[in-house]
Amino acid sequence: MRAYFSRRYRLSASHRLNSDVFSEDENRAVYGKCNNPHGHGHNYVIEVTVGGPVSAETGMVCDMVELDACVRKEVVDRFDHTNLNLDPLFQDQVPTTENLCMEVYRLLAAAFDKAEVVRVRVEETSNNSFEYPVNPLFLAGR
Amino acid sequence: MILLTRKAEFSASHYYWNEAWSAEENERVFGKCANKNGHGHNYTLEVTVAGEVDVTSGFVVDLKQLKDVMEREVVGVYDHRHLNKEVPEFSGAIPTTENIAIAVWKRLDGKIPGAKLHRVRVYEMPDLFADYYGEP
Questions:
Q1: Of the candidates B4, B47, B5, B29, which has an alpha carbon nearest to the alpha carbon of residue B94?
Q2: Domain interval for residue B74
Q3: I want to staple B5 with a disulfide (CB 3.0 to 4.6 A). Which of A31, B48, B81, B104 is the partner?
């Protein structure tokens, strides 16, 4: 039977939201406080969901230790206590949490082969979160 | 269609062990969870049901009835129990978070008046949870 297993990880990083296609005034208007030239930071929560058949032998979708190791290597070690704007992934795109969420999904989908990575949710603060990709199963109306 | 979720909590002990394996293999795969003396968690159960809002009551489901079904079928059976030793479905399946979610689904499916079970989510701790949507 197919089930989904989720784990939450934490990382702290700084960013500045600023787009080269906007003027200084437009950047300030669009991004507000997030456009502060000196940057600011968040304690991000990264929630990773993997799906697959539950093994009859282990009762598990995948070995949590292997998922932890992959997320640590690919995501936490890469972004924790860094300036996101300096990461190669954010040279051509603004490190909004939407873009961070999609990049984390791509990194993990490419690196983790023990189960299917089906969803990444990133909480930027306790009041806002983002998830990708959108899986119809997790929406209403099944 | 609207979704409604109700939470409940239960505390239980368990351990992970596959009888078909050697002790070394169990300890290698399951680590600390293979300690046969067991250990415990405060589980949080989230049951999500789907249905249409009744025009008269404004409810998708009667919350009292949902609470009673969850209490009778799950919490009353699992709370303050040793899952491996005292809950029948775990005599043949390791009580991992995934298997608990599947077992809760089987206990609740078809027993909720007026609504369809949509998701069972079981938190073993705040940073670890399993979801089951009734998929084969």
A1: B29
A2: 2-132
A3: B48
